Amino acid sequence: MNLLDATVDALRLLVFGDAALWRIVLTSLKVSIAGLVLAAPFAILTGYAVAVGRFPGKRVAVLLLQTALSIPTVVVGLVLYMLLSRSGPWGQFELLFTTSGMAIGQALLAFPVLAAFTLSAVQATDPRAWETAVALGANRALVMMTVLHEARFAVMAAVVNGFGRAISEVGAALMIGGNIAEHTRTMTTAIALETSKGEFAQGIALGIVLVLVALAVNVALAVLQGRGGLR
Questions:
Q1: Residue 43 CA to chain centroid, in angstroms?
Q2: Shortest CA distance to 61 belongs to which of 92, 30, 52?
Q3: What pLDDT is recorded for position 132?
Q4: What is the share, in percent, of the chain residues with pLDDT greater than 90?
Q5: Could you report the per-residue pLDDT of 76-116, keeping only the tens digit for each?
Q6: Mean pLDDT of 5-15
């Protein structure tokens, strides 16, 4: 099958609503969003704490967060696979080859992105916001909320980038989920499988969906940031 024929078939799958294809899309979205929800609170708090805290080893903590950004996804998948396997310490939870296990993997991948971006966002915030909150007698929680509110657009960008890393990765999803049809198959693992089989139509269709999801998320971010959508 040539590229043109494969593209036509891909568009046909999208237009006529192939059930298997949209099941894969929904699995990807469900797992990625779940992973993001798991990671975001802890990652944002970690980024904030490292940014404003004064403690021994702060530079090491910053370096570790930045290093975690470049850890290959297959390494994360390998470590989590060993933890979740029957002989691993978390084997009794039977999370391997499940969407729940995949969501944990996506959370681990999104965490450093969210934390590192939040760290940079808080460090770039006008210090007068923190000083004003303290001068008005705000407690630590209110000071944190004030600073994060000032940095909200950058934190939103962090969330978008975390979601992007989660939904677009293939290594951890393949190792932890097993790429089981109608159960743990995601867009990226399906694309890899179909390409290896020489069946490009579904891969192209899923690639189009991935691009559209990325576009929709970034347009939503632009709107939330008050930039008038595509301006």
A1: 12
A2: 52
A3: 84
A4: 67
A5: 999 999 999 999 999 999 999 999 999 999 999 999 999 99
A6: 88
Number of residues that make up the chain: 231
Query: Does residue 101 contact residue 84 with C-beta atoms inside 8 Å?
Result: yes
Cα-based distances in Å from 43 to 80, 158, 159: 18, 10, 10
Write down the pTM of the prediction. 0.90
Q: How far is CA 97 from CA 81, 84, 116, 179, in A?
A: 9, 9, 29, 8
Shortest CA distance to 144 belongs to which of 40, 47, 37, 36? 47
**Is 83:89 a contact under the CB 8 Å cutoff?**
yes
Q: Which of 77, 102, 72 is nearest to 186 (CA)?
A: 102
DSSP string, 54-116: --TTHHHHHHHHHHHTTS-HHHHHHHHHHHHSTTSTTGGG--TTSHHHHHHHHHHHHHHHHHH
